[in-house]
Every structure is written in structure tokens, then in C-alpha cells.
Amino acid sequence: MKFIILIVFLFLTAACRHNQTDTQQKSATWTEIQERGYGTITLAFVPSEGFSYTDADGRLTGVTIDLMRDFKSFVNSNYDVDIELLFEPIDSFSAFYNHVKESQSGVFGVANVTITEERRNELQFSPPYLTNIATLITHRDVPEVESFQEISDTFSGLLPLAFEGTLHQERLEGIQQKFLPNAVMSFAQSNNEIIERVSAENRYFAYVDIYNYWRAAERGAPLRRHAAGDESSEQFGVIMPLESDWANVMEEFLDHSGGYIYSSRYRELMEKHLGPELADLLLNSE
Question: How many Cα atoms are found within 13 Å in the side-chain-facing hemisphere of 242?
Fold first, then answer.
């Protein structure tokens, strides 16, 4: 009996280790795929409405998901290889970021990651596929601020609510230090949580990407956008581990035929998943 228990224990331990490394084993380098003519790459993502979500038919879709499907088609067609996508959802942005950073070549990440010089020391980035607008929001009961100088009075008593580990946290820390030094930072683990908490009570101010605000406002969430706080200086890129040999192929895809993001296909995806008005705002935000 003890022998059987030991065998079961060893089997479960091995299975656990296998699951932890399964993604790495399945993800192929570009060199391997060129040599074999086929292989699998892994696409890690954080579920996000409009960009990486499950539609009414249960199909994974969205702007960045379809962008990567187009990347797959481009590589298969132009290099006469057969690559497949393995999708890997990760709920936490920090866990997603660290997962891609610590992975091997063949793992890609799409979670609207802002390109920064600091992050370039940890990851490889594709050319930008979107210029983002970060917008400052509160409950709609808060009067709109026309400039940052009004924040000390208008946001008095409110708490900054940050999506931990993102540039939005850094933006809020700047406001906190300059205008509300006594306000204590609160943290959320997703954009949806921020939207829910800011909508629920007149207690917080936060930064979100404009598409998160836009979708919530369309659903009737009681939010106010403070346009004076808008920032459109950041760009999103697909991320890859530092040692990845896929970066040049990804760059070729985004740059081909005058630039993927300037193509009618990309506009079609943006309008399909985000709506024409929001798509137009983002496509012209540079």
C-alpha cells in the first residue's frame, strides 16, 4: 500500500512540474520553426474588453488577438511554414509581465503594455501598434476639473485607486505627491475592478485607458472623465523575452506594405471590436 501511495505521489509531482514547463516546451524559436517548417508559439494575454475577450459565441477575439492571428497568417504565407497559436490567459498584469519576461523565445505577450526605456531592459518590444490615451476618472458626482491646479480642492477627500504595477500607478503617485500628499493609495488588480469601485461610490479617482472608460460609460456607469488629465504620449507594443529571436519577424509584419496599423484591415479590426467612434479617436491620437 505504501508503495502505491509513493507511486501516486511521484506521478502527481511530475505532472505538476510538467504543467509548469509545458508552455516553454511547446513554444518554438523562430530558428526551430524555419528548420522544421512548423511549430507552436504561445500568446499570453490579460483578458480585456475590446482587445482580448470571449465573444457571445465563446470565441476568443479582440484587436490584439486578431492582430496576432494576422501575424500567424503573414508568417505562414511569406515563409512557407505552419505555425499555430497557443493562447494563455493570465488574470494579473504583474503575473503576465513577469511570465513573459522569464519565458524563452516563442512566447509573446499582448496586454497593451506601454513601451518604456526601463522595460526595454527587461523585454523586447514590437514596433507600436497603438497610441494610447490615459484618462483621469472619478464618480460623476465629482465636478470636472479644468486643470490640475483644481485637483487639491475638487478631489479633497478622495483616494487614488491604482492598477498596481502599471504606469497609471505612477501617474497617480505624481498627483498624490503634488496635490494630495495626505491621500492614501488604494490598489486594484484589474481595470474592471477600478471601474466598478469608482462607479460604486464617490470615493476614488483613478487613471484608466480611455477604451475602459468608454465601454463603461456606454453601459451607463456613473463616471466622469476629466479631459484635462488626458495623456496620449504612450504607445503599446507586443512584448517578447529578451532572448527571443522573433523580434525581427514581428517588426517585418508590422512594417510590411506601408505599415499594418495604417492598413484598412487594422481599421476594420479597431471598428469591429471598439466601435467606429472610439476607433477613430485612438487611430488619430498620435
Answer: 9
The alpha helices in the chain, defined as continuous H runs, are 2-26, 30-36, 63-79, 93-101, 117-120, 151-154, 167-179, 191-200, 210-218, 247-255, 264-274, 276-283
Q: Which of 8, 90, 1, 99 is nearest to 45 (CA)?
A: 90
Q: Label residues 179-199 b or e (16+ Cβ within 10 Å = b).
A: bbeebeebebebbbebbebbb
pLDDT for 49: 87
Greatest alpha-carbon span in the chain: 75
Q: Give the amino acid at 214.
A: W
Q: Which CATH code for domain 134-231?
A: 3.40.190.10
Same fold across 28-131+234-283 and 134-231: yes
Domain residue ranges of the chain, discontinuous segments joined by +: 28-131+234-283, 134-231
What cell numbers appear for 50 in the block?
A: 475590446
Per-residue confidence (pLDDT) for residue 25, from 0 to 100: 57
If one counts every other C-beta atom within 10 angstroms of the C-beta of residue 223, the result is 20
pLDDT tens-place string over residues 110-163: 999 999 999 999 999 999 999 999 999 999 999 999 999 999 999 999 999 998
- Of 239, 213, 256, 4, nearest to 114 by C-alpha is 239
Q: Which regions in the chain score pLDDT beneath 70?
A: 1-25, 286
The class (CATH top level) of 28-131+234-283 is: alpha beta
